[in-house]
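Changelog-adjacent note: as of this version, every example in the card shows the full chain rather than a window. The one below runs 310 residues end to end.
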Amino acid sequence: MKRPSPEKPAQSAPLADDIAAFRNYLQAERGMAANTVLAYGRDLDRFAQWAATGALKDYLHPGIRELSQYVSHLRDEGLAPASTARHLVALKMFYRFLRLEERAELGAVELLSSPTLWERIPQVLSPESVEKLLAAPQPGDRFYLRDQALLETLYATGSRASEVVDLKLADLHLDSGFCKCTGKGSKQRIVPLGRPALKALRAYLSELRPELVRVAPDSPWVFVSRGGRVLTREMLWTIVKKYARRAALSTKVSPHTLRHSFATHLLAGGADLRSVQELLGHANIRTTQHYTHVDRDRLRAIHHRFHPRG
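Full-length structure tokens:
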């Protein structure tokens, strides 16, 4: 009689959610083929199952010893060197995605030997393109007021996608013109809301949201779908991409693009790096400094205008 195969260890919910978000990112933002996305997903599912055995204490902060043990685990399973290398490529891309989402640092993952990987340069919209995106929701759209407030809030605050979908009514202080964001490590920060965002939020909260939460009036979330359910990050990506297409912008525009644009436009307008660091919720100013390189055209124009031999 054939013995039943042992049950696979369950993946931890946060890791499984991040892998699902990563798959969405590869397909929606990187434009990868479905088979490629499936292959990377399978490789990461294997990593998650290994982590669920207790071999990895904290997947957001892996140690080089733990990751070396994972490589040994792949070899013990009889994977060919080429397959092991592909698993490591998937792992490195996953951690690059987490870094893009500002949920993890590369750390020990970069110490693993594997093929050279792409390095994503943050995409930034011009102020004119941002205006087109923010004007894309139209009164005829089903959730016009919500989507308008959502886009305005993303750009006004420079918040991460997860921070915006996690916003609660108690976090909004519209009379004072600011909101409270909870970032990485449960760190909270106060972010001002501009006049357009305040106007859009007030309209949404008074006219549309009461209808959406009619069956769940105690729903604490600011941005909800019908029935008062909280928006997911995937839903937020879908909304942003819908209006990016309508505004005839790049298919790579995502919620994080608005965060990049927020930071770059502040620096281009003369804001100091420390203030932008605080608004973005960066623990290290070196992370904020990544945005300084994307404004080279402005620096080149200044050099040409003011340098004697420019």
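Structural remarks: The longest helix spans residues 34-55.
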